[in-house]
From TrEMBL:
UniProt entry keywords in alphabetical sequence: Acetylation, Golgi apparatus, GTP-binding, Magnesium, Metal-binding, Nucleotide-binding
Lineage: Eukaryota, Metazoa, Chordata, Craniata, Vertebrata
Biological source species: Lates calcarifer (Barramundi)
Name the record gives this protein: ADP-ribosylation factor-related protein 1
Family the UniProt entry places it in: Belongs to the small GTPase superfamily. Arf family.
Binding site for Mg(2+): 31, 56
Gene (UniProt): ARFRP1
Length: 191
């Protein structure tokens, strides 16, 4: 009887937990994206002022519940010397959100190199990828097709894993909702 009841309780209330890494170069908007996501998805969450966000040295963690899923985000610092720490988190991650600064064409190839190195890791084999073309509020920024073209030679390394490129404006929250959750569900994370 106890087993039955505890099974029923777990079925009704226990959440499936997923760890999602948020990666990308410094200044891409990862922490801004995380703060917006927490604000949009967590009732009563009083987010920090976005203008007070400074470069991440280490890691920010955020958790949101969506339906029966609990998503734990790990937002890692993107500065060059911090990128060597990213792979410590790969083995435990169920998905990666890779944020690109669409206003910074000058660093697009650097971003592509970091992305390519990340997806080359065996620990991330088969892990779904959501690529966010951030800062779409800025006029004349790179579009999703521009970014897809610049990253096109990563296709063999992406292989058969799910990968979606979405436009996003983390600063205002525009598209955060659709690009974070529905894209993750498209990628099969909430199955
Ligand atoms: N215009 C615009 N600016 C943005 C957007 N998202 C982030 N920013 C700005 O970009 C800058 C960097 O944002 P962060 O969120 O700190 O970037 P990060 O990727 O976490 O950077 P690191 O922690 O150094 O790796 C800040 O000045 C943000 O206000 C956006 O959608 N539009
Ligand atoms: Mg940050």
């Amino acid at each position: 009887m106890y087993t039955l009841l505890s099974g029923l309780y777990k079925y009704m209330f226990q959440k499936d937990e997923y760890c999602i890494l948020i990666l990308g170069l410094d200044n891409a908007g990862k922490t801004t994206f995380l703060e917006q996501t927490k604000t949009k998805f967590s009732k009563n969450y009083k987010g920090m002022s976005l203008s007070k966000i400074t470069t991440t040295v280490g890691l920010n963690i955020g958790t949101i519940d969506v339906g029966k899923a609990r998503l734990m985000f790990w937002d890692l610092g993107g500065q060059e010397e911090l990128q060597s720490l990213w792979d410590k988190y790969y083995a435990e991650s169920h998905g990666v959100i890779y944020v690109i600064d669409s206003t910074d064409e000058g660093r697009l190839s650097e971003s592509k190199e970091a992305f390519e190195k990340m997806i080359s890791s065996e620990a991330l084999e088969g892990v779904p990828l959501l690529v966010l073309a951030n800062k779409q509020d800025v006029p004349d920024c790179l579009s999703v097709p521009d970014i897809k073209t610049a990253f096109s030679d990563c296709a063999p390394k992406i292989g058969k894993r799910d990968c979606l490129v979405q436009p996003c404006t983390a600063l205002t929250g525009a598209l955060v909702l659709c690009s974070s959750w529905s894209s993750l569900s498209t990628l099969g994370l909430n199955n």
